[in-house]
Amino acid sequence: MTDARMAAASVVDPEIRVITIDELGILRAVEEDGASGRVTVTITPTYTGCPAMDVIRADVRRALAAAGYPDAEVRTVYSPPWSTDWISDGGRAKLAAAGIAPPAPAPTPGVVALTLAVRCPLCGSPDTEQVSRFGSTACKALWRCRSCSEPFDHLKAL
Ligand SMILES: [Zn+2]
């Protein structure tokens, strides 16, 4: 991993501060031009309408400048679209540890998912219900566990 890649990968998601943009899977590429020293970072937004992307762009540029790359460009690429499958295993573990239910893997195309089982991150019970489509941020939904009656955030699966 290059220094530029490490700097960009260390940026945390502004909405879910326990996870980096690398673990979230939205950091697509970090290219360094050896001659000019210019760095081009490619990111793919998570949820449409998430205001976090402006913050992420600014944070990436700041992290690269601090690592000695003042000339950085952040490109946004929408294709292929980000999906929750891109969250790394380490990222999922961090989400669970923070009490955020990691999204289920996307269903196989052509297969109808009968139940969207969201497990309670506190007690592990699958007996949960959605309380509100929007939790603490537009990207998360608020759920409640029927077993321990604790509310929790669920990162919406895409
Ligand atoms: Zn529970």
From TrEMBL:
Pfam families, sorted: FeS_assembly_P, Zn_ribbon_PaaD
Alphabetical list of InterPro entries matching this protein: Fe-S_Maturation_MIP18 (IPR052339), FSCA_dom_sf (IPR034904), MIP18-like (IPR002744), PaaD-like (IPR011883), Zn_ribbon_PaaD (IPR056572)
Domain MIP18 family-like: 9-67
Domain PaaD zinc beta ribbon as annotated: residue spans: 110-156
Domain of life (superkingdom): Bacteria
Name of protein: Phenylacetic acid degradation protein paaD
Organism: Micromonospora lupini str. Lupac 08
